[in-house]
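Request: How about a record?
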Amino acid sequence: MARDSEIPVSLLPSANTAIGFSLIELLVVLLIVGLGMSMLRVSFSGSDGYQLRVEAKQFANGTALMAEEAVMANRQWGVDIYRFQDEDSPSADPERFGYRWLVRNEQGLWLPGNDNIRQNEFSFGPGIGLLLELDRSGQEHDIEFKQRVIDPDSQINADLAEGDSLQQEPLIPELWLLSSGEMTEFSLQLFDRENPDMRAHIRGDVLGRVSLDPQDNADAL
């Protein structure tokens, strides 16, 4: 059996070698963690434009589909674009934007197009800003806070009618999708609030055509 004294000194681990190897391992771990956190931050902030492209495509595709349904079902549909306060947002600015599909009933009132087949309401991600122009006005359209919709046939609506202080203005969507195939002409820009130059641009014309240009970095309205 070999004794320690018979092992060549050059093969024995030194204190400096053991410490150096541990430091290298630690630096590699820190580098991996740092890269992971960086990727996570980019993913959530949308600074690479991916989140903007995804949400812009969802809005464009959804609006185009609803425009087709308005023609096929001979009904008037609308897109209500609104802002709301996200109480669970960890950021200093909890304000966010969302949109929902509305349908016009026989009395001419706009109500949520609720059904059990598809989703009716959507929210743009945290940190995404929104600029809307209608009918080539050259001016930014003011986005109102989300309005509560009351079914005119419900008892709740009858109770509200008794008090003037509880009255609310009729809901009117920003975009009209008509059964004739026509649409409100619009230009919608989504942008990263931390990097406003990063934008996705959706356009709709009077003929009901919706186009998406996710690489558009046009100046703000």
Notes: Strands lie at 77-85, 95-104, 110-112, 121-123, 128-134, 175-177, 186-192, 195-204, 210-213.
